[in-house]
Structures are given as C-alpha cells and as structure tokens.
Amino acid sequence: MAETNVGGRDRLARALLAALLTIVAVSTLRKGKRKTGLLALVGALGLGFNATTCFCGLNKTLGIDTTDE
C-alpha cells in the first residue's frame, strides 16, 4: 500500500481550497492576469493532488501525519 499522511479534515480542506483556487485561476485568466491565474492554478493542482493521493511531501518532511484525525 502507498504511503499516506493526509486524511480527515486536512484532506477535505485541501480539496475545498483546490476548488476555490481553480475558480480564482479561471476568473483571473479570463481577465488577462496571467501570473496570478497561473499561480492560482499551480496551487489548485498541488492541493488537488494532495487531496486525491492522500500524500503531501511537505508533511512527510516535517513529520506531520493527519490520517488519524
């Protein structure tokens, strides 16, 4: 089984933030603000990846495990 260190409320928060950042990215890209839109998109992809795979490299580096929440 793959290593996991993201769970519970942490996973839900990451998924919600990914959805919010996706909306921000689309909105800002439509307004022509490329840097802000792309930055929001990168954040959305990262948080979405964390929520989907239940793994965060930064959590691993810092020794944080929220799977027991």
From TrEMBL:
Transmembrane segments: 12-29
Keywords: Membrane, Transmembrane, Transmembrane helix
Pfam families (UniProt xref): YgaP-like_TM
Record has Transmembrane as a keyword: yes
Residue ranges of every copy of the Inner membrane protein YgaP-like transmembrane domain listed in the record: 3-67
Protein name: YgaP-like transmembrane domain
Lineage of origin: Archaea, Methanobacteriati, Methanobacteriota, Stenosarchaea group, Halobacteria
